[in-house]
């Protein structure tokens, strides 16, 4: 099967590769329609590793996907051939202690698409457990279906924050995940969300949404902006979504006493954290790694119309141009938020 293969760090190819296609009794086979280019895909391409996950052999990229079911296993009753679907890319060991505790996202045995050594789905077909495959409502496009996965991270962050209606939040980092977090926080009850970055084009995109207040930290201090927005009290919740070590320096300057800091961005190196500042304010610290038991709720929120992710799609490529899409993503253009690849040649 022809697929986009990361041969090794910095080397991509579109070529034939053998991928598992046997449909088990609890599986479905999906004709892939749309795949989003994720920051983790790009990081594997440019660096060859994320932490302990190292690309040691050729690996198919892509894990933000939607498509159409073309075959179902003998035990599958919830889905049928022809259903338009999106897929939760991480499949845990259903017998593990983590799964039984409801935190299967941190199951050490989880198999997650495009995470070494597991292949991703930038290929015409994929086989996946029906239990982790979700039917798209008629009003949700394939493009939006492929955005459910990153939005689920935003939903997980909002859930971990324990938002109280009316809260004021800050998101540090206006990348795709940062904007997803801001939208999820608003949907979860925040009255407004300040989002900070150096990228004026990304901030302009985020600022299109009512309730999101962009802060260009190249022109204005985030500490001052938060003080002005909260009458010098501080934000109820601060989401760190940049992964930049420098961002950790003033996290506890912008959160209110008794507030929460939610760590979402994954630094590539060890960072310093001002523990005395956190303790003096009794700040609650939460961490986010992917998501658990939230994929279907993310899809429902998109279907409701309360969250519109379409403005975040800033580029679409045909499958034959997949390498160009990744080269563009690796450039980190300031006006880009989410690039997608179509395997059918048709939008929808």
UniProtKB/TrEMBL annotation:
InterPro entries: ADH-like_C, ADH-like_N, ADH_Zn_CS, ER, GroES-like_sf, NAD(P)-bd_dom_sf, SDH-like. It comes from the Bacteria. Pfam families: ADH_N, ADH_zinc_N. Keywords: Metal-binding, Oxidoreductase, Zinc. Its cofactor is Zn(2+). GO terms for molecular function: oxidoreductase activity, acting on the CH-OH group of donors, NAD or NADP as acceptor; zinc ion binding. SUPFAM superfamilies: GroES-like (SSF50129), NAD(P)-binding Rossmann-fold domains (SSF51735). CDD domains: sorbitol_DH (cd05285). Residues 10-334 form the Enoyl reductase (ER) domain. Belongs to the zinc-containing alcohol dehydrogenase family. PANTHER family: SORBITOL DEHYDROGENASE. This is NAD(P)-dependent alcohol dehydrogenase. It comes from Mesorhizobium atlanticum.
